[in-house]
Amino acid sequence: MTGTPDADVLIIGAGPVGLLAALDLSSRGVSAIVVETRDFLEPPNVKCNHVASRTMESLRRLGIAAEVRAAGLPADHPQDVAFRTSLTGRELSRIPIPASGERYTATDGPDTSWATPEPPHRINQTFLEPILARHAAEAPGVTLLNRTRFHAFAQDADGVTATISDLDGENERTLRARYLIGADGGRSAVRKQIGAKLSGDPVLQHVQSTCIRAPHLYGLMSADEPRAWGYYTFNPRRVGHVYSIDGTGTFLVHTYLSPEEAEDPGSVDRDAAIRAILGVDEDFSYEVVSKEDWVARRLLADRFRDGRVFIAGDACHLWVPFAGFGMNAGIADVLNLTWLLGATIAGWADERILDAYQSERRPITEQVSHFAMSHQQKLAKPGLPAALEDEGPAGDEARRVFGAAVHDLNEPQFAAAGLNYGYSYDASPIIRYDGAEAPGYTMGSYTPSTVPGCRAPHFRLADGTSLYDLLSAGYTAVCAPGAPAAVLAAAAELRGIPFSVVEVAEGLPAEYDQPITLVRQDQTVVWRGAAPTAPEAAALWELLRGVA
Fold it and tell me: With contact defined as beta carbons under 8 Å apart, do 251 and 228 qualify?
C-alpha cells in the first residue's frame, strides 16, 4: 500500500453495526477508525428493542454479553408480549418470555429450550449503543471520530482515501485505510457513492412513532396481570404497538396508519391515536419525549461491495423492523465481513475470500426481508371481530378466538428460532458442499443440521463448556476421539490458518454423523467427512482461504 495508512479499516457510522465492526476488528488485531456525526454517547432514537440470540452469541465471544443482558429493563421485568384490546383494556393472550434475571434457568416460554449459550435479550437501542460505544472507545486499535462528517472516498489498487471534516464543514482532511465499511444507515452516502441501487417495495405502511413518559400508566393496568415488554393492541378505533423501554414509565407507541390515512399522514391526530391505543381519556397526561414518523419498506441493495468498499446493515437493506430483524441482520452482515477482512489482513487468506461476503449475506437478507414483509401484511389486516369489546359470552368467545389467532400468528416472530439459527449459505465460494440439501428456512422453526453452509448445532461438552466457546478464530474440527485430524492440522499450520480440534468423548449430537465436521468461527459448517489425504487437505484449505 502506498504510504502508511491511518488504519486498516475505516468505518462510516457508529450505530450498533459500525461499533460492533470496530470491536470485532480490534479482537483480531485489526485497527479501525469510526466516523460518526453524533457526539460520543449521544443517545440514539428509540428504535431497535431486541438483541437476537445469534447476536448475543457474538457479544459473548467479544466478552460483553453479560453487561448487555444486565442493561435495559429491570432484571425481574417480564419480557412477555401481551395482546390486548388496549394497553389498559382486556388481555386477549400472551407469549411468555422470561425476565433477564431468569433467562438462563427459565423453562416456561417458546424460546427457553433453544440450544444456545446465549438466549435473546430485549433491550432498547438507547441502552445497548452506549455499552458498545464505551467498549469501542477503549478497544485497542480503535479510534472514534465523533462530530465528524464523511464526504466522499476514492479508491485505488492499494486502499481507500476518504475525505472528512468537522461537523460544521471546517477542518476538511483525508484518511487513508486499506478498506472502508459503510454502516451509515438507510440514507447511506457510501451506498450512493458505490452506485448500489435499492429495489423492492418502497412503501408498505406509514407509522407514527412516539416515545412517551407516563409512570402512572402502570397503575391503570390490571394488578392481576404481569407486566410485559411489548403490547399489541387491537380495537375498532386504532391498532398499535407499545413497548416498555425502561420498565419505569417510558414507552414507545407505534400507531399504524390505514391506507386512507397514509395519503395524508399529517392529518392523523397523534394524541387521539395514542389515547386509543393506551385506552385512556383526555384527562390522562403524558410527556412526549420524542417522535418520529416513518415508512415501512422492503428494499435491498443490488450489491454490497465495490472493490475495497463494503456496505452493511441499513445501508444495504431496509425492511419492516419486526422483532429487531433489521439491526440483528446488519450485525450478522458486518461480523461476517470483519471475519473475512481479519483473515485477509492477517495474511492467511487470499483477498478473493472477500467475494464470500455478498455471496453469503445478500441471499439471506433477501429472504428475511420477505419474512418481515409477509408478517407485516398479515398484521395489517387483523380482521377484528365485531364483539371484541362486548360484555357477556359473545364478547368472551370473540376475545378467546381472536387472542389465540394473534398469539399463533406472532409467536414465530418473537420466538424466531428459524430466523436465528435456520438460515444456510448455499452458494458460498468458501464452503465445500457435499450435495446434501439443507433443511428448509422458515421464520419460526429450526432443524439442526451439519450440512455445509448451516449453523453447527450447539451442544455442551461433559464439563458444561459450550462448543461455541471453543471455536478458534479460524476453523475448528469437531470430532469423536481418535478421528484423524492431524493431516488437516498440518496443512492449516503450513498456511498459517488458525485451527483447533474439539474432541467429544460422549454426547456428540446425532447431526454430527461424519468423523470430522469443520466449523469456522461464526459457527458455519464449511466441510464434513472422513480424514482427508494430504492432497485433499491442501485443496480444501485453498478453497476455504479464498484461493481456489
Answer: no
> β-pairing, 499-503 with 475-479?
parallel
Residue at 286: amino acid letter: Y
- Fill in the DSSP letter of residue 419: I
Reference 5, options 37, 35, 30, 26; nearest CA is 30
Joined together, the cell numbers standing for residue 269 give: 391526530
pLDDT digits (tens, 9 = 90+) for 385-418: 999 999 999 999 999 999 999 999 999 889 989 8
- Over residues 24-77, the pLDDT tens digits come to 999 999 999 999 999 999 988 887 899 999 999 999 999 999 999 999 999 999
CA 116/CA 114 separation, integer angstroms: 6
Q: How far is CA 508 from CA 195, 465, 484, 540, in A?
A: 48, 13, 17, 24
Q: What are phi and psi of 488, to 5 degrees?
A: -60, -45
Q: Which positions ≥6 away from 180 have C-beta within 8 Å?
A: 9, 10, 11, 12, 153, 155, 160, 162, 190, 308, 309, 310
At residue 198, does pLDDT exceed 70?
yes
Do residues 78 and 96 lie in contact, with contact meaning Cβ atoms separated by under 8 Å?
yes
How far apart are the C-alpha atoms of 414 and 325, rounded to whole Å?
10
Q: Is this structure's pTM higher than 0.90?
A: yes
Residue listed under C-alpha cell 401484511: 377
C-alpha cell belonging to residue 6:
491511518
Q: Beta-carbon neighbour count of residue 477 at 10 Å?
A: 23
Compute the C-alpha angle 421/426/428, nearest 5°: 110
Give every strand in the sheet of 250-256, ordered side by side. Answer: 91-95, 81-84, 230-235, 238-244, 250-256, 198-213, 287-301, 317-318
d(CA 515, CA 418): 27
How far, in whole angstroms, is CA 5 from its chain's centroid? 31
SS3 category, 210: strand
Angle, helices 356-380 vs 393-414, to 10°: value is 170
